């Protein structure tokens, strides 16, 4: 008797979880809370400025946040500069025309006819700038969170500037069933703003109880066989000043972002923090 062995012609590829280095030591999982806060903010804006006043029916869908490096859709982006960086927004024209219909009685856009829309008018341009300014100012207020600084958020009128290359992209679906509108409001938060947002949302960790067993350095080395070198600071000085140094001399330095190297290659920058009398690295970001 002959047995036949069936050999599969293909195998399902083994999927590995790819870790994003931008998430190392950063509370990116808390961005879902920020998305909920941002949705409430924009809902209030649409409700007070449009839904109640003009009996519009705008509703928001689930907000999505995409990390830096995501291709940014082309279009007439509006941007505003406010410390520490740039905030941008892009209103799809179908949304602007829909608002014009409620505010000025302009012809409502028909689904699937965006390409046949008339040329942009000065009224439409001013309305786009007004809506963009309100949205960006609200976004900055939410990023600063609360306190006197949030109440004082104000910047010059938004300009037609594209977001920075390191911007994180936020997609806000906007719908109005009465007009058949299915549009998207796009927001872009540059890397400096996002770093501040994540730092402010880092949980305050309580001191580790003495009874808790901490992993030993050798155990950690076995799990992470890469050697990280932190270059705390580097300074240059003339050879003459170096030769004149004596015991007790002081070299003025300032500690900023720390360079993290692997086998001599600069891969990340990180912040230096103190924990139980020891220096630690946190808030890793990609090196430029």
From TrEMBL:
Q: Does the keyword Thylakoid apply?
A: no
Source organism, top-level taxon: Bacteria
Designated name of the protein: FliM/FliN family flagellar motor C-terminal domain-containing protein
Keywords, sorted A to Z: Cell projection, Cilium, Flagellum
- Record domain Flagellar motor switch protein FliN-like C-terminal: where: 223-281
For this protein, the record's Gene3D superfamilies field holds: SpoA-like
């Amino acid at each position: 008797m002959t047995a036949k062995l069936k050999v599969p012609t293909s195998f399902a590829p083994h999927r590995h979880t790819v870790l994003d280095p931008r998430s190392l030591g950063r509370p990116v999982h808390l961005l879902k809370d920020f998305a909920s806060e941002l949705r409430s903010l924009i809902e209030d804006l649409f409700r007070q400025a449009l839904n109640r006043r003009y009996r519009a029916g705008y509703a928001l869908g689930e907000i999505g946040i995409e990390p830096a490096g995501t291709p940014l859709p082309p279009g007439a982006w509006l941007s505003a500069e406010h410390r520490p960086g740039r905030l941008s927004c892009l209103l799809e024209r179908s949304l602007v025309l829909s608002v014009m219909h409620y505010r000025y009685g302009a012809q409502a856009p028909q689904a699937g006819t965006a390409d046949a829309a008339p040329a942009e008018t000065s009224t439409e341009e001013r309305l786009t700038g007004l809506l963009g300014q309100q949205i960006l100012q609200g976004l900055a207020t939410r990023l600063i969170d609360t306190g006197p600084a949030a109440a004082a958020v104000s910047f010059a009128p938004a300009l037609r500037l594209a977001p920075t290359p390191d911007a994180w992209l936020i997609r806000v679906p906007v719908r109005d069933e009465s007009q058949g509108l299915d549009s998207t409001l796009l927001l872009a938060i540059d890397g400096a703003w996002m770093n501040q947002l994540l730092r402010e949302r880092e949980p305050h960790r309580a001191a580790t109880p003495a009874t808790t067993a901490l992993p030993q350095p050798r155990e950690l080395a076995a799990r992470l066989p890469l050697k990280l070198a932190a270059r705390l600071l580097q300074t240059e000085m003339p050879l003459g000043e170096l030769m004149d140094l004596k015991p007790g001399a002081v070299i003025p330095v300032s500690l900023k972002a720390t360079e993290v190297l692997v086998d001599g290659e600069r891969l990340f920058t990180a912040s230096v923090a103190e924990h139980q009398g020891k220096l630690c690295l946190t808030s890793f970001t990609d090196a430029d």
